[in-house]
Amino acid sequence: MMASRQPQILYVDARALQDDNYRFRGVGQHSAAILQAIRRFPWPEGRPRIVAVVDPFLAPLAPVHDLLFDEATNLKRARKADGPGWFISLSPMTHDPMKVSGFLLDPDLYRICLFYDLIPLDFPERYLMNPGARSDYLVALAWLRRFDAFASISEFSAQAVIARTGVDPARVFVSNVAVRSELLPRQGDSDIPHDRRRHIVVAGGGDPRKNPECALAAHAASAVLRRQGVSISVFGAYPEPMRDELRTRYRQAGGRPQDLTFHAHLSDEALRALYQSSLVTIVPSRAEGFSIPIVESSAASTPVLASDVGAHPELARDPAWRFGPDDVDALRGQLERLVEDPAAWDGLRRAQADLWQGYTVEAVGQRFMEGVLARVPEPVTTATRPGSPAIQRGARPRIAVLSPLPPAQSGVADYTAMTLAPLKAVAELHVFTPTADARWEEGWASLQPVAAAEFSAIRFDATISVVGNSDHHVEIVDYLLENGGGCIAHDARMINFYYLLRGVPQAMQLASDEMGRPVDQGELTRWLHNQRELPTLFLSEVARASEPLMVHSPTTANEIARLYGKTPRLLPFAQYRRSLLNRLKRADRDRARKALGIPADRVVLVTFGLVSEDKAPLELIWALNMLRSWGVDAELVFCGRNQHMKAQLGALANQLGLVPFVRTFDTAIDDATYDNYLVAADIGVQLRTYQMGGLSGALNDCISAALPSIANAHLAEAMQAPDFVKRVPDGLSSLLIAEAALGILSESERGQRPVAEARAFAETRSPAGYCQALLGHLDIDIDVKAAMVAAGQG
C-alpha cells in the first residue's frame, strides 16, 4: 500500500452526516469531534484538504457539518492528481460499502474507519429481521477487512472486531468517544448536596436495548424511594405509544404515575441541568459499544449505576455498583443504599468525578491522531508501487462507457461510436447503453443495458457517462447522479431534459435551487422557448456528480465554473464522421445532386440535424426568401427529422410562396442521404439561438466536408471553426444570413471547396487525439496512437 504520514487530501465517507438517523445522534457527534480533531491537528506540512464524499440521493450536509469540509463531492474513487491521500469512513456498518468501493479497493490510500460495535450480531431478531438486512450487514462486515486502521470507541468493540473479522490486532486501537464541550464542568459550578437531589434519571432511547424497563421496575418496587420522595425520569426519543407502554409497566410494578416523567429533545443546557440535579444516573442498556451518558454524568458530578454489559466496565469501573440488565432486585438495592447512605453516595460520586477528563474532544482527538499516525506504513518506492487496478492485473485498463449508440437517432450516439473507437486498441472497453438494438462492434469487451452497470462485478479503472439533453440519456443521468464517475457533457444546457423528461415540478425545483430564488412555471416556460435568455444551465446535478466533468467548449467550461464553482476539463470536439474529402470532385457533386433530385445549377443551402426552435429554422426560410427576391435560384434543405415544427415551417413557406424550394423530412435521414447532401450542398448553415458555449455536430460535419458554411459568431467560436465558416451576429438577422450566403457565392467558384484548410483542421480534431485527451483526464497514461499502430489500426 502506498500511504503517507502527511497526506495532501483526506476523503471522508460523509453519508452518516447526511442521514437523519445518525447525523445528530451518537455517530454524528463522534464523527464531528474526530473531524474537528483532524482540522486542529498541527500537521507539519499544513492541514490536508478534507473532502466529503456524499450521496446525492441523501439529504445535503447540515451547515454545521458542511463547515468541517473543504469540498463535497460524489467521487467514486480517489483523484490521482490530488496526491497522497487517506480515506476515512465515519460509519462503515450503516451505509452500503459498494458506494465507496473505489476508495476501499485503492492500494494507494491509507484507509481508516471509526468503529462502533457489532451489536446487531448479538440481537439479530431485533436488527437483522429479514434476509435483506442480514445480507447487507454481512456484506458490510466483509468489507471491514479492507481498512488499514480501526479507531474503536472502546476496548470491548476493539476485541469484537478482531474476533469477528480476524483483522490483525495491530491495526486496531481505541480512541473512545468525546463528551460535548457544552456538557463539561464550568468555572463556578457548585455541587448540589445529596439531600436536595430528589429524582433519578434514566438514560434511554427509542431502541429497546436501552432497557429502561429494568430501572423503572426497580424504582416502582422500592418503598424506600417512595418514602423518600424520589421520582424517576427517562430521557430519549420515545414516541407516545412507547411512553404509554412504559407507564403501564411502571404502574403494574407498583409505581405511582406522578413519579414518572419523560424528557425528549433536550438542549445541552437542559440535559446538563438534569444530570446535575439528579441523585443518580442509571444506564441499564443490554448492550453498548460505549456509553456517553456515563461520561456526561461524571462531568455533571452525578454518580452512575450501569448494567454490567459491553463497554460499561471500562467506564463504570467498580463492579459493586454495576448490575445485570435483568437484575431488578440488585439495582433496587443499589438505589436504596445511595438514597439512604449519603456517605456511600458521595464516595461513588468522588470515585467517578474525574472520569470525564479522559473523554474531552481534545483527549479523544489526540488518541485518534496518535493511533492513526502510528499505523501509517512506510511509503513504498515507485518501483514497487502497485499502481492502478490495470497495472496490478498486468492488463489493459477496464473502462466502462455509458452512452446511446447507433441506430438511435442521436448525434451523441454517432459521436460516441466513432470518437471512442480508438479506445479499443488501448482498453478493455465495456459499453452500457439504453439503445435496445445497439450494434455490436468488434473489439468491445461487452455490450449491456445501462441497468447492468451498477451491478457489474467488474472493477473498472474508469467509468464515463455520456450525457445529453434528450430522452436517450435518462437512464444514463440516473446512473451518474447515483454512482458518479467521469462524465462527458455534450450539451451546454439541460433545460429540455428536465422540463420535458423529468417534469415541470422537478425542473422548477432545480431552477429555483440554481437561481437561489423561487422560479415559477411561467418563467420556466419562457426560458424553454427563448433559450438565449436562459440565466442558468440546469447542469448543477450533473456537475456535482461528475469527477471529472468534461466538456467540448471553453465557453461552456467557463460558464459551469462561474455558476457552480467547478471547473470542467476540456476535450477537443473531434470530427467523427467518415471523411468526404475524397468525394468532392465535380462528378461526385453531380451524382449526389442527381440522387437527391436537385437541379444542377440551383444554389442549395442545407442545415443539418433535427429541426428545433433553437436552431432558428424560421429565420432561415426568411433568408431564403430574400435570396430568391435578389434573383438567386436557391433552395433550403432541412436535412434532419422535422418532428416538432412541421406546421410552423409549412405555414411560413406557404405564406411566402416557397413550398417548392423548402425540403423537410418527417423521418430520420439515413447516412447515405446525409452524406449526399454534404457533397451536393453549396452552403451549410448551422445556427443557435442561445449563447452558452453549445456545439454543433452538424457544423463539425460541414467542416469535415470542407463545405463553406454560415454560423452565428458564438457557435463558430465555441467550435473554434476555420475561416471558411462565415460568422453572422448572434442576434440573428435573416438579412445578414442571406448576405453571408451571397458572400460565399461571390468569393469562390461554385463547387470548389477549401479542402486543404479542412484537412489541416481535421489533423487537430482526430478521434485518436480526442481519446488521448480523455485518457489524460482519467489519469490513465497510455499512448493511443502508438497502441493503434501496434494493433494494426494506425
Automatic annotation (TrEMBL):
Q: Name one Pfam family in it.
A: Glycos_transf_1
Q: Which residues form the Glycosyl transferase family domain?
A: 197-342
Q: Name one GO biological process term.
A: lipopolysaccharide biosynthetic process
Q: Name one GO molecular function term.
A: glycosyltransferase activity
InterPro entries per the record?
A: Glyco_trans_1
Query: Which spans are transmembrane here?
Result: none
Record keywords: Transferase
Protein known as: Glycosyl transferase group 1
Annotated organism of origin: Brevundimonas subvibrioides (strain ATCC 15264 / DSM 4735 / LMG 14903 / NBRC 16000 / CB 81) (Caulobacter subvibrioides)
